[in-house]
Amino acid sequence: MGRVLPIVVAIALLVYALIDCLQTDSTRFRSLNRIAWVAIIVLIPLVGPVLWLVLGKERTRQQRPTAPPARPLAPDDDPEFLRHLRDIDTKHEQMLNQWEADLRRREDEIKHKKDAEQQAADEAERRKQTDARKSDDEAHQNTDDEDDSR
Question: CA of 29: how far to CAs of 8, 23, 62, in Å?
Answer without folding.
Answer: 27, 11, 18
